[in-house]
Design brief:
five-stranded antiparallel β-sheet; two-stranded parallel sheet; 9 helices
Length: 435
């Protein structure tokens, strides 16, 4: 029942499925996609100052005044005024030296940069998943080899027990067989933990939060894909996302220089608006006509005023202490700096590609050699097993041959894993992982 439950809890997982899950769930990819969404939202003319700005206003103006002036006809007054002033205003930059166009170009380039950074993150995530997937496969293959050797050690114990029963072997031979079995069992348990850790590492890169007992369905085979360095270098220059992002940074630096350059040109703005003032006054006033004071209450009649305006403003900076010139010079230096960074990155990536390609060719030969080594080690183990049963070799020689077989298989598996990882690095450098 426990075995059946364990099987039902397992989920088949191919490399393609692992990559699909990773691109959906990996947090770094999701963050990069969110950055692209922000850049897409910002890439709009409304953020460049192209359109006019219109505001509705509503003000309240309340005041109280008390006046005493014996020399005036109105010798005394006490007035409370309440005013409501609704209005509308609009401002529009008619000309600012094409800064609006440059601002839109900058937003578009920011979007391009975010997309290249997303592409680089996707490539990096796919590379991590491939390496983790094949790393787990290697751990599983090593576990299967140790399981096979453990079975041989178990059979050897039974064989020595049978020989001892018939008086053909002593306690020493049995103890040696039991000691080998215990060592193989310890190694097997350690390898089991390494395999589970490799699966957990794969789930982490995939962004899977819930622990799942995955069964890896792809096989670990040596690759024999033929590449040429010239073709790889051409793809590197065309498709590498880091190089493309650096190129976008050059374009952004050039646009920044252009934006600061047009600051030398004048700016023309149009401002228009209107407001409506409704003022209601309440209070009292005292009149004096020839020694006959007379107090009267204000009737509280509303005074209404409508005011509108249209203004055209032109601004041209004549002198700012050289700050504008310094900013332009700094922008030009930053543009040169971004070009140097691109050249440096290109040179570094070319060298990295050449080293990786040379390593790839070397590792192909290592896979071929270690595969032959495993075949020889297996034949040697089979022959040693027959000779050990015939009493032609002792237990120490047999154990040495057994360990040689384990080492040969592990060397082959590591060689295949290194070859897979190197090929994945070649594809990442050339931007081919998602193609």
């Amino acid at each position: 029942m426990l075995f059946s439950t364990s099987l039902n809890a397992q989920e088949a997982l191919s490399l393609e499925q692992a990559i699909a899950k990773g691109l959906t769930n990996n947090y770094q990819v999701r963050l990069s996609r969110a950055s692209v969404a922000i850049a897409e939202n910002n890439n709009d003319w409304s953020l460049t100052g192209k359109y006019p700005e219109v505001n509705l206003t509503l003000g309240s103006d309340n005041s109280y005044s008390s006046t005493e002036n014996p020399a005036s006809v109105v010798t005394q007054s006490s007035v409370i005024s309440n005013a409501v002033v609704p209005g509308v205003s609009a401002s529009w930059v008619l000309y600012n030296g094409s800064r609006v166009t440059y601002a839109k170009d900058q937003l578009a380039k920011q979007l391009d940069l975010s997309q290249e950074q997303l592409e680089a993150q996707i490539q990096s995530t796919i590379q991590g998943i491939i390496q983790a997937y094949y790393g787990a496969l290697v751990q599983r293959e090593q576990l299967e080899v140790l399981q096979e050797v453990l079975g041989l050690s178990r059979d050897r114990i039974r064989y020595q027990e049978t020989r001892q029963e018939f008086g053909q072997a002593g306690a020493f031979d049995l103890v040696q067989a039991q000691d080998a079995y215990l060592n193989d069992s310890t190694t097997y348990l350690v390898q089991q933990n390494a395999y589970q850790n490799a699966l957990r590492n794969l789930q982490l890169i995939m962004g899977v939060d819930t622990p799942t007992n995955f069964t890896l369905t792809d096989s670990l085979e040596g690759v024999t894909t033929a590449y040429t360095q010239q073709d790889l270098e051409e793809k590197l220059l065309q498709n590498n996302p880091e190089l493309q992002a650096s190129n976008v940074n050059i374009q952004l630096a050039a646009l920044n220089t252009e934006v600061l350059g047009v600051a030398r040109l004048p700016q023309v703005s149009l401002n228009a608006g209107a407001n409506y003032n409704i003022n209601v006054s309440n209070g009292s006033q005292t009149f004096n006509f020839g020694g006959m004071p007379s107090e009267q209450d204000l009737p509280g009649v509303a005074a209404k005023t409508l005011r509108g305006f249209v203004n055209l403003t032109a601004t041209y900076n004549i002198y700012d202490g050289g700050a504008r010139k310094r900013r332009i010079e700094t922008a030009q230096l930053q543009e040169l700096q971004s070009q140097l960074q691109y050249t440096s990155l290109e040179q570094s990536l070319k060298t990295q590609l050449a080293n990786t390609y040379a390593t790839y060719q070397n590792q192909q030969q290592l896979v071929s050699l270690t595969s032959e080594l495993v075949s020889n080690a297996r034949r040697n183990l089979t022959i040693a097993e027959e000779r050990q049963k015939g009493g032609l070799i002792n237990s120490f020689d047999y154990r040495s041959i057994q360990l040689g077989y384990i080492n040969a298989t592990q060397s082959r598996l590591n060689a295949i894993l290194n070859l897979k990882n190197t090929e994945t690095e070649l594809l990442r450098l050339t931007g081919e992982l998602v193609r």
